[in-house]
User: Which sequence fits this backbone?
């Protein structure tokens, strides 16, 4: 009987702490009423203005989001640096994008190998969450997923990652998207 009373007292004592944690977890973005969405280790992600959906690896260990980019061509447009690149969807459809270059980053890979990558802004959608995110352009040849969704997208998206599930959400943001 004393054990039950102790457990009840402990539960009552901790309940306010769990309530606060729940309130802080909801809406990592500005929307404080947002409930966290559970996403899997791999998800379908829409490139909103490209009208395409790609399978992505969700990587909480990666700072940034990365997309497989080929035929990378830098050019000037109205006094700004731009880039044109191609990527392939999971159905091998080639899609060409043009974006303003917003940064260049040095990525340190396995074996301390350094690589300079261009960074652009792309509107991505997972479930019903759409966000403009900085994406670095990388040759992801030989990797299973052509899109890697890093913390830059996840941090403010209100997501929890369950590595035991995958492809749990279809993109539902506005815009035309292929399957």
Assistant:
């Amino acid at each position: 009987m004393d054990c039950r009373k102790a457990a009840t007292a402990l539960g009552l004592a901790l309940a306010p702490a769990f309530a606060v944690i729940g309130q802080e977890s909801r809406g990592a973005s500005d929307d404080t009423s947002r409930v966290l969405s559970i996403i899997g280790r791999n998800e379908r992600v829409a490139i909103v203005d490209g009208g395409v959906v790609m399978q992505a690896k969700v990587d909480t260990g990666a700072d940034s989001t990365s997309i497989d980019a080929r035929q990378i061509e830098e050019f000037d447009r109205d006094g700004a640096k731009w880039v044109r690149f191609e990527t392939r969807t999971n159905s091998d459809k080639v899609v060409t994008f043009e974006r303003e270059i917003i940064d260049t980053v040095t990525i340190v890979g396995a074996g301390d190998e350094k690589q300079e990558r261009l960074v652009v802004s792309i509107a991505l959608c997972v479930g019903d969450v759409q966000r403009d995110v900085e994406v670095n352009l990388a040759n992801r040849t030989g990797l299973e997923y052509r899109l890697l969704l890093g913390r830059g997208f996840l941090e403010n998206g209100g997501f929890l990652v369950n590595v035991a599930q995958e492809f749990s959400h279809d993109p539902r943001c506005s815009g035309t998207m292929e399957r």
Summary: Residues 6-29 have pLDDT under 50 and may be disordered. The CA atoms of residues 45 and 126 lie 5 Å apart. Residues 2-25 form the longest helix (24 residues). The domain at 36-162 is CATH 2.40.70.10 (Cathepsin D, subunit A; domain 1).
